[in-house]
Design brief:
Layout: H1 7-19, H2 35-40, E1 46-49, E2 59-67, E3 69-74, E4 94-97, H3 103-109, E5 121-125, H4 129-137, E6 143-146, H5 147-152, E7 158-162, E8 169-176, H6 182-201
Parallel strand pairs: 4-5
Antiparallel strand pairs: 1-8, 2-8, 3-6, 3-7
Helix pairs in contact: 1-6
């Protein structure tokens, strides 16, 4: 199993172990460009992924939740102490990229094209979250990423600021559509149970 949802990962795995007491789970971190292909090719049985993907053939995606997006900025950046930023505030910034990843995925995270018509310029290529944070901390380029990163990763040189006007990110469990093994079936059920628990914790919105 690969990728992370922060504390939700532990909740899902605890539920899976409750359902399948003798299960053995090995967590690995794969480059973003290999997460779905690793599932499709059987290198891993499941991944926690953040779409979109150009090719999801043969894969089943079970949405766990939708999460907001933040921009990772160097602590010295003029926007680093803001409570929120708007996408237009980032139009003049260079954005990190991943030369190996699906271009659709890269552009979606960079919010390319921008509503303002500004051309997104891409800078350093990174493959993992740790690499991304080092590039940001060094002041080479900021990056729009998921809210989970601010909750799960720490880098003393990086500040995370919510981006107010971009779509949320769907977090999904990715498994092979043809995989009907008992462990994967229970993993899907554990994800569904975790999602119901999360929904029950979220206060209802009233119009």
């Amino acid at each position: 199993m690969t990728a992370s949802t922060g504390s939700r990962t532990h909740e899902i795995l605890d539920e899976l172990r409750r359902r399948v007491p003798d299960v053995t789970v090995q967590m690995v971190e794969l480059p973003w460009s290999h997460q779905t292909s690793a599932v499709r090719e059987g290198q891993v049985d499941a991944a926690l992924v953040r779409p979109p993907f150009a090719d999801s053939s043969g894969l089943r995606l079970d949405v766990i939740r939708h999460e907001g997006r933040v921009v990772a900025l160097p602590k010295t950046h003029a926007l680093a102490d803001h409570s929120v930023v708007h996408l237009a505030d980032l139009d003049d910034e260079i954005h990190v990229t991943n030369d190996d990843a699906d271009p659709v995925w890269v552009r979606w995270w960079a919010c390319d094209p921008r509503p303002s018509g500004a051309v997104v310029r891409y800078g350093p290529s990174v493959r993992t979250m740790d690499e991304l944070l080092e590039v940001v901390a060094a002041g080479q380029a900021p990056s729009i990423t998921g809210q989970f990163v601010a909750q799960s990763y720490r880098n003393p040189g990086v500040a995370f600021v919510p981006v107010d006007d971009v779509p949320s990110c769907p977090l999904s469990l990715c498994t092979r559509n043809s995989d009907t093994s008992s462990v994967i079936t229970e993993l899907r059920r554990a994800v569904a149970a975790s999602t119901r628990t999360e929904e029950s914790r979220t206060p209802a919105r009233h119009s």
